[in-house]
Amino acid sequence: MQNVPGGSALCGPPLKKGKTRMFHGLHQDFPSVVVVGLGKKNAGVNDQENWNEGKENIRAAVAVGCRQLQDLEIPCVEVDPCGDAQAAAEGAVLGLHEYNELKQKKKPAVTPQLHGSAGSEAWQKGVIYAEGQNLARYLMEAPANYITPIKFAEHIEQKLRSFSNVKVHIRPESWITTQQMGAFLSVAKGSAEPPIFLEIHYLGGANTNDSPLVFVGKGVTFDSGGISLKPSSGMDAMRADMGGAATICSTIVTAAALNLPLNIIGLAPLCENMPSGKANKPGDVVRAKNGKTIQVDNTDAEGRLLLADALCYAHDFNARAIVNAATLTGAMDVALGSAATGVFTNSSWLWSHLYEASILTGDRVWRMPLFEHYTKQVTDCPLADLSNIGKYSRAGGACTAAAFLKEFVTASHWAHLDIAGVMSNKDEVPYLRKGMAGRPTRTLVEFAARLSQDSHSTK
């Protein structure tokens, strides 16, 4: 698959960006050749778009070329590095991925490989990055009766089994109780599936005592809304409400595969949010790990209850930074749609690392406010210290959710990523097929890689 300059007599007029043309019988070694349009030559960082346009063009073009060859049922595709072997590998591996575990009729498997030997290291890195995102896509797309809290934890444990510098703890309900995680348990108690607290320690740093980067991910494996039941239309998509846990765990699996030189801890509270005779009721008051009481005015604002306890626990590790990810609010989707992940952070140092990472990966982030203005709306509560929804209900819903989480954070470098808007892909990202997106896994991996190079713990 090459972008062949000139030769218009042979191949017709120039190709537009992302468009393809297929040729047969050009070469004895390659019965089929797809030529792809890469757009402007030397396209680099676009300051309006906040991404590297050249890299995005390569990802999109390679993905569409690989898919065309998959349609011909060709088992192996050689991909030209197109001037950026990592971006080409990402486009190929992301573009071919599809969840078809449960179908009898599957698309033919295609293995993309690098054409030539130039850039093989960058190609391999791109494959690892893309496989990390594909793991998150797999976990999010799979039905909730296949990825229950325990099955999720076991799947991640199995992925990490081969790494000697990784420890995985699958904490049962009894441990969660002894940790006094009353907010998390209040959500879990409505379901017949027992909750799990997944804790992963990746010790890649030169010194195992170096302060770790701590990731926290919301792991609601199915969210019905609880007693504040969601509408039935589209509720099946709530099998992906563990997207935060899926992306942070996939990030750690990828960091281990890349052997990144830093310590990372991953924390994922896993449960279902279901209506039952034991479920939280609107108006109930629960107590979080740090002693703060929370009035549960809406049982469908449950993600913040899990994260409240997990964020408290994250402070036990003398973290260099705490980064949490969660499909937290529909309001985030209303605000930014699927263009970018919303980032709420108290640290400009953390923000700049996340932002710079996202320019390279093309999986963008956008900074959102953590004003006191929003805090007042969750602390003005009739029965408890905090309400789990803002008192003006829908106004600034993503911001009041972030303000709620901030009440459980004392660390000076914390970021909350609301990934509800980037949870799934229709056709917005051309190199991802329709379905759960696994975003922003590659941005988190790139962020961790940058942090591992940055010897200063704070700025």
Overview in brief:
With 459 residues, this protein is α/β, with parallel strands linked by helices. Helix content is 35%, strand content 20%.
Break the fold down into its secondary structure elements and pairings.
Blueprint: H1 8-11, E1 20-24, E2 32-36, E3 45-46, E4 51-52, H2 53-71, E5 76-79, H3 85-96, E6 111-114, H4 120-141, H5 149-160, E7 166-171, H6 173-178, H7 182-188, E8 196-203, E9 213-217, E10 219-223, H8 243-258, E11 263-273, E12 284-287, E13 293-296, H9 303-314, E14 321-326, H10 330-336, E15 341-345, H11 348-361, E16 365-368, H12 372-379, E17 386-387, H13 397-406, E18 414-418, E19 424-425, E20 435-436, H14 441-453
Parallel strand pairs: 5-6, 9-11, 9-14, 10-11, 13-17, 14-18, 15-16
Antiparallel strand pairs: 1-2, 3-4, 7-8, 8-11, 12-13, 15-18, 19-20
Helix pairs in contact: 2-3, 3-4, 4-8, 7-9, 8-14, 11-14, 12-13
Q: What does this protein look like?
A:
By secondary structure, this protein is α/β, with parallel strands linked by helices. 35% of the residues lie in helices and 20% in strands. It has 14 helices and 20 strands. The strands form 6 sheets. Strands 7, 8, 9, 10, 11, 14, 15, 16 and 18 form a 9-stranded mixed beta sheet that branches. Helix 3 packs parallel to helix 4, helix 4 packs antiparallel against helix 8 and helix 12 crosses helix 13.
